[in-house]
Amino acid sequence: MLKFRMMSTLIAVHSDELNELKQEIKDLKNLCSTLIEHNKNNIVKPFYTNKDLPELLGVGQNWIKKYRDEGYLPYTQVGDKFLYSYEDIMYFYQKNRLEAYAYD
């Protein structure tokens, strides 16, 4: 079990939980980098599909399905199609953004 000190509060984190958190941070970092790169190239579609997102975000289909089904990734459903707006993707990113705390 690893322990971290944050703003005078000691938090104990199990190593499995820490690894999961590290993976989620890595996923969000990939998401941010990809969106920034696409935005630089002005390649912003009005909507992205399940087929577009893995390449755009650098994640797998299971990741998209998990976060959509658990209510973390906003979407629009038309029939059997799931559509994600750029705003939906940015909303997800902003809601999951972690501020740096090492500088406090």
SSE order and pairing:
Blueprint: E1 2-6, E2 9-13, H1 15-40, E3 48-49, H2 52-57, H3 61-69, E4 76-78, E5 81-84, H4 86-95
Antiparallel strand pairs: 1-2, 3-5, 4-5
How would you describe the overall organization of this protein?
With 104 residues, the chain is of the alpha+beta class. The chain is built from four helices and five strands; from the N terminus they run ββαβααββα. Strand 1 and strand 2 (9-13) form a beta hairpin. It is globular, with a radius of gyration of 16 Å.
Shape: globular
Biggest sheet: strand arrangement: 3-5-4
How much of the sequence lies in strands comes to 15-25%
Number of strands: 5
State the end-to-end CA separation: 24 Å
Order of helices and strands: EEHEHHEEH
Mean pLDDT across the residues is 81
Can you count the helices?
4
Helix-strand category: alpha+beta
Using only C-alpha atoms, the radius of gyration works out to 16 Å
Major sheet, described briefly?
3 strands, antiparallel
Stretches where pLDDT is under 50 for at least 5 consecutive residues are none
Helix coverage percent of residues?
40-55%
For the structure shown, list the relevant keywords.
single chain; 104 residues; alpha+beta; 3-stranded antiparallel sheet; two-stranded antiparallel sheet; 5 strands; globular
